[in-house]
Specification:
Carb_kinase_PfkB-like, single chain, Adenosine kinase, Carboh/pur_kinase_PfkB_CS, PfkB_dom, kinase activity, alpha/beta, globular, nine-stranded mixed β-sheet, 12 helices, five-stranded mixed β-sheet
Length: 332
């Protein structure tokens, strides 16, 4: 049986990225800096009105899988696409990056998901996502052999929007824990936390989730507090390991009473924040599954995120392993 460092589960999405000004967001009622779920009609309307765009395979957990593979990790992915043009793009891209992806596609049905991402001058991204085929991910797509063979199963909080995906996550987590492995999740978005706060806390407190990734806003939202230290105190009690990012202020990794403050990687230019949190998780999970000290895991996360924000698009364009070796974080 193949062994994997990480199995990632997420919404398989192709990103369509375009620049716009603030007035465009206001004119089209787009919530800045958030992920907004939209239907097929609105997806078509926004696509018709957006400027020149770049298509790039995305999806939060898919980005993380690509990052782990770029670092040299063995990684698998569950996610649902259709047998259409965008589905072919997504499948090609993730396999080309070295990720094991064997989820069966949909035929003659709902199209592959796409996210219209609008970048304003301040490099903030506003995502408008049509979930399409993603809503059909279900327990029948769980490959037990992969679920049992990965040291860590990692899934995105966004999966709590498609109803059948919840069952798929619970089935996968069961197989992972039966095999003595761990389960991680990212909270994904403050609005996602608002929708599923009680369920996310139950996943953590009930032992379904061992490791949590969040940014500062999501951590505060989870505990409905404006006190960041209070949010850190509570999240450290609700899971075995918590990794909380703070953009240019770096990140904090907590394991019980153990606390590591990680600096952000200095950057030359800010191009696009899309995928930064996903690549941070990739660096941390790669290091964690290789047994590295938590501060090194955090520095790997900062490196991957720092490289990500200096490019357009969420998937690694640099060889992350080479970059990590040059930074002295891993050996060749």
């Amino acid at each position: 049986m193949d062994k994997y460092d990480v199995l990632c589960i997420g919404n398989a999405i192709v990103d369509i990225i375009s620049h716009c000004d603030e007035s465009f967001l206001q004119e089209h009622g787009i919530i800045k800096g958030a992920m907004n779920l939209i239907d097929a009609e609105r997806a078509e309307l926004l696509y018709d009105h957006m400027g020149p765009a770049i298509e790039a395979s995305g999806g939060s957990a898919g980005n993380t899988a690509a990052g782990i593979a770029s670092l040299g990790g063995r990684v698998a992915y569950f996610g649902k696409v259709a047998n259409d043009h965008l589905g072919t793009i997504f499948t090609h891209d993730i396999r080309a990056q070295g990720v094991a992806f064997d989820t069966k596609p949909l035929y003659d049905s709902i199209p592959t998901a796409r996210s219209m991402i609008f970048l304003t001058q301040d490099k903030e991204r506003s995502m408008n996502t049509y979930l399409g085929a993603c809503i059909e991910l279900g327990p029948e797509d769980v490959e037990e052999s992969k679920a049992s063979a990965a040291q860590v199963v990692y899934f995105e909080g966004y999966l709590w929007d498609p109803p059948r995906a919840k069952e798929a996550i619970r089935v996968t987590a069961y197989h992972a824990h039966q095999a003595g492995n761990e389960v991680a999740m990212t909270l994904s978005d403050p609005f996602c936390v608002d929708r599923y706060r009680d369920e996310f806390l139950e996943l953590m407190r009930g032992g379904t989730v061992d490791i949590v990734f969040a940014n500062e806003h999501e951590a505060k939202s989870l505990y409905q507090t404006d006190d960041f230290e209070e949010a850190l105190r509570r999240i450290s009690k609700d899971c075995k390991l918590a990794c909380v990012t703070r953009s240019e202020m770096g990140s904090i990794i907590l394991r019980g009473e153990e606390r590591h403050t990680i600096d952000a990687m200095p950057i030359e230019r800010l191009a696009d924040t899309t995928g930064a949190g996903d690549l941070y998780a990739a660096g941390v999970l790669f290091g964690y599954t290789r047994g590295y000290a938590l501060d090194i895991c955090g520095r790997l996360g900062s490196l991957a995120a720092g490289l990500c924000v200096q490019q357009i698009g969420p998937r690694p364009q640099d060889d992350l392993r080479v970059c990590a070796e040059q930074a002295g974080l891993i050996s060749g």
